[in-house]
Specification:
The chain contains 22 helices and 15 strands. It is α/β, with parallel strands linked by helices.
């Protein structure tokens, strides 16, 4: 069945309501790609039956960035003898992560009709069109949940008190936490206050979380999977799939698009938001450091100032002129400057026991209050450009929250708004030290010798190169030591660069057949023969597939290669 036939079938099933995308738009056309190799592919599918079962729980088939990579993984694993099963939502869930990308014009419409009213038809059609040509096992949510379980989900979503939802656990599973994360992502906010429909939206996400839990439980009851692989590992539905799989002792593999073009980051057991903070330092601290490795990582870090080697960056023409920046902000460079970097408030709102503050906003406001009592120092707050330039623009902006708490800023506090073209690197490299909560920029700044104080879930925490605060008292005690008046010592800088090399070149795994492209998603699968997908055809894909099947580390041995950069030409992808 072609995708056009599939679409016509879905139109008959769901009616002829007005649709924003009247036909599936495929990021990668597997029917065309596999056409010249159909016999080889069908033989591989037949041979893989009875092999180790892997669940690729894509769920959201209409998310092209997700379905592109996860169908590729399905093909590569099948060619390695694995029996691959896919899981897709067939317009069943009352809320999901895709609804956070594509919202109706009014939140009240989402409350009334859910994603089915504006999104599900297109999403399911695109998922079907993308996955069906592979001929692999495909499971649907609606077939996995009983009427009794649907009533259970309805009852819980209706009767559980609003305040109890975030901490709600179902059979020991953190259902409420992921429901809350999903609702926060939907609103693109760090909290749900001031949103009139917030309670109804949160209850939709709770219902979807319960339904996802039951669907995953039934699927894992029916089949023995050696691993479950899916994107993000948080939100709804992915977070609940991970909760159930871990409880059932099915190995979990989560992935995300990495910064570098052609690259992806994979983690065992949980979302990389958690695992990168707890990864043993033994994975990288004993790397045999060479001048070539140092040159490679420093060249790449400088390239990040302009985004020339990355999938996505936020400024096409960043302002690097320090004199112009100082004049624009009104800084007095004869006095110490301390930097503060925010991250997007709604992103990955999970529980992190290492956080010194309950949330990032509390950290920002209390830090400003501290500096108001330190006129000897200047604080420059750089608001993350992704607040307005990211895929999901934030509806709760740090600058607005600061203005609400401080209608008049302390004279020694300066805020760079997200729309500013001021280069974060240009100003932060002039600072005595930099304060961070969850941003990844700490990995880069320490490599340039800038002391960094960590108050939240930043990945540079626990690496032996930053000053890490576990409590608010510890954090303010560290601030009392400012200004530090010195750069990091040579040994610490080398350690920071080793970790940066590990983080950007070893944990970010290149896939040869992922071709950069303009637009969204910033990649597509392209190949002429099946060789780069076969075992031994691509070291990056080999490492990923072996990690999924055998549980081996997702570490790419870039240090053993001539160059850690992808071999194919790079195409800038500005989002």
């Amino acid at each position: 069945m072609t995708w056009r036939q599939l679409y016509k079938t879905l139109r008959r099933r769901f009616g002829r309501r007005k649709e924003r995308h009247p036909a599936p738009v495929l990021a990668t056309d597997w029917q065309a790609l596999l056409g010249p190799h159909r016999r080889t592919w069908e033989d591989a599918v037949t041979h893989a039956r009875g092999g180790p079962r892997v669940l690729i729980a894509t769920s959201i088939g209409g998310h092209p960035g997700v379905s592109t990579l996860e169908t590729l993984l399905g093909v590569a694993l099948t060619l390695r003898g694995a029996e691959v099963h896919f899981l897709l939502c067939d317009a069943f869930l009352p809320a999901c992560m895709e609804a956070t990308w594509k919202k109706p014009d009014r939140h009240a419409d989402f409350v009334r009709g859910g994603p089915q009213a504006h999104l599900c038809r297109r999403c399911w059609a695109e998922g079907q069109a993308m996955f069906t040509p592979l001929g692999l096992a495909l499971h649907r949510y609606s077939e996995l949940v009983t009427p009794a379980e649907q009533r259970e989900a309805d009852e819980l979503a209706r009767t559980l008190s609003y305040d109890a939802i975030p901490a709600f656990r179902l059979e020991g599973l953190a259902v409420g936490e992921h429901a809350l994360a999903g609702a926060l992502r939907y609103y693109a906010r760090g909290d749900l206050r001031e949103e009139p429909e917030a309670e109804a939206v949160l209850r939709r996400y709770l219902r979807a979380a319960v339904l996802t839990t039951r669907a995953t439980q039934r699927l894992l009851d029916r089949f023995d999977f050696v691993a479950a692989c899916f994107n993000h590992g948080i939100y709804v539905p992915q977070g609940l799939i991970g909760e159930v799989a871990r409880q059932r002792r099915v190995r979990v593999v989560n992935w995300n698009t990495a910064y570098r073009q052609k690259c992806f980051i994979f983690s065992h057991g949980d979302t990389y938001h958690h695992t990168l903070m707890t990864e043993p330092v033994a994975a990288w601290e004993n790397l045999p450091w060479t001048p070539a490795m140092e040159e490679a990582i420093m060249d790449y870090l400088v390239s990040r100032w302009y985004g020339t080697r990355d999938w996505v960056w936020f400024h096409e023409h960043p302002q690097h002129d320090l004199d112009a920046i100082v004049a624009e902000l009104g800084l007095d460079m004869s006095k110490p400057v301390i930097g503060l970097l925010t991250n997007v408030m709604w992103d990955a709102q999970l529980h992190y026991p290492a956080n010194a503050f309950p949330n990032m906003l509390d950290w920002v406001l209390r830090t400003i209050a501290y500096f108001a009592r330190r006129p000897d120092l200047q604080l420059v707050v750089r608001v993350h450009p992704a607040e307005i330039r990211g895929t999901i623009p934030s509806r709760q902006k740090i600058a607005d929250e600061i203005a609400r708490a401080y209608p008049v800023l302390p004279a020694n506090v300066f805020v760079i708004p997200p729309e500013s073209s001021i280069s974060t690197y240009a100003i932060m490299l002039q600072c005595d030290s930099v304060l961070i909560y969850g941003t990844k920029t700490g990995v880069e700044l320490t490599s340039f010798g800038i002391p960094v104080i960590v108050a939240g879930e930043a990945w540079i925490r626990n690496k032996g190169v930053t000053l890490d605060a576990r409590t608010a008292d510890e954090y303010f005690a560290l601030l009392d030591r400012l200004p530090l008046g010195r750069r990091l010592d040579e040994a610490t800088v080398q350690r920071a660069r080793k970790y940066a090399y590990h983080f950007f070149f070893r944990r970010m795994i290149p896939i040869a057949v992922m071709e950069p492209r303009k637009g969204w998603p910033p990649y597509r699968v392209h190949f002429e023969t099946l060789e780069p997908l076969q075992p031994g055809g691509d070291p990056g894909l080999d490492i990923i597939c072996r990690g999924i099947l055998e549980g081996t580390p997702f570490i790419y041995p870039a240090e053993g290669l001539t160059s850690p950069e992808p071999a194919s030409p790079l195409v800038p992808a500005v989002t």
